[in-house]
């Protein structure tokens, strides 16, 4: 009965390819996020959506495009993958916006670019 | 520019003793602080939080202390258990940008018997 689920768990692909990571939450939360954890274990926010609307877009290359078809889903599409995109990507959700709304994380997608 | 810092990458504590994990921040506009625990191959799990209007919050074996003047917070785990062995992340949110959590780089806690 997973609260925040991401697929796939592992993704190995070649430079230049396009790939997508899917995220779904069954918590009834309004806000969803994408984070990137790089090789230095630094967890950094990329995007956040509230009720399907984009509210945070950090300085992420426009090769990364999030899509939220509904409140329960936030997918991440990456075009023209580069070596530096290798990382673990975490999806998260929270009841609303605000620091007092703890975020619930998925188990991550480990993306490896060859 | 790392605004949330966890200067100890690792900590080793004997079972039953106290674990103290530290976190420093630089931005005085942070108003909410959270601790997350992470096991290998899993996502971070929310543990405990504290608002900037408080200096202490307690939940069972876990207590978070906030010293605003020093821009320092700490997580105390008493008594430590082997199941507490994980990476602990400190995170902060800004008063005027509340959706964005800024994470530290984590401290790996190992509790040995």
Explained architecture:
- The complex is a heterodimer of chains A (114) and B (113).
- Chain A is mostly beta strands.
- Chain A contains no helices and eleven strands.
- In chain A, 0% of the residues lie in helices and 55% in strands.
- In chain A, strands 2, 4, 5, 6, 9, 10 and 11 form a seven-stranded mixed beta sheet that branches. Chain A has a four-stranded antiparallel beta sheet with strand order 1-3-8-7, with no helix packed on it.
- Chain A starts with a strand and ends with a strand.
- In chain B, 0% of the residues lie in helices and 60% in strands.
- Chain B has no helices and eleven strands.
- In chain B, the strands form two sheets. In chain B, strands 2, 4, 5, 9, 10 and 11 form a six-stranded mixed beta sheet that branches. Chain B has a five-stranded antiparallel beta sheet with strand order 1-3-8-7-6, with no helix packed on it.
- Classes of the chains: A mainly beta (114), B mainly beta (113).
- At the A-B interface, strand 5 and strand 10 of A face strand 4, strand 5, strand 9 and strand 10 of B.
Structure summarized in a few sentences:
The complex is a heterodimer of chains A (114) and B (113). Chain A is an all-beta fold.
């Amino acid at each position: 009965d997973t609260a925040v689920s991401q697929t796939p768990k592992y993704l190995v692909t070649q430079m230049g390819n396009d790939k997508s990571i899917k995220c779904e939450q069954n918590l009834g939360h309004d806000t969803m996020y994408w984070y990137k954890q790089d090789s230095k274990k630094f967890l950094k926010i990329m995007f956040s959506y509230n009720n399907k609307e984009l509210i945070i877009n950090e300085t992420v290359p426009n090769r990364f495009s999030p899509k939220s078809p509904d409140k329960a889903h936030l997918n991440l599409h990456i075009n023209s993958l580069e070596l530096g995109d290798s990382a673990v990507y975490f999806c998260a959700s929270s009841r609303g916006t605000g620091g007092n709304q703890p975020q619930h994380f998925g188990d991550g997608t480990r993306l490896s670019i060859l | 520019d790392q605004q949330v810092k966890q200067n100890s990458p690792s900590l080793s504590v004997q079972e039953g003793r106290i674990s103290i994990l530290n976190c420093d921040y630089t931005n005085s506009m942070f108003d909410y602080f959270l601790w997350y625990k992470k096991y290998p191959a899993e996502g971070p799990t929310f543990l405990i939080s504290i608002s900037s209007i408080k200096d202490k919050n307690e939940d069972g074996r876990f207590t978070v202390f906030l010293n605003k003047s020093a821009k320092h917070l700490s997580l105390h785990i008493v008594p430590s258990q082997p199941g507490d062995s994980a990476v602990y992340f400190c995170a902060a949110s800004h008063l005027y940008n509340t959706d964005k959590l800024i994470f530290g780089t984590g401290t790996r806690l190992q509790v040995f018997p």
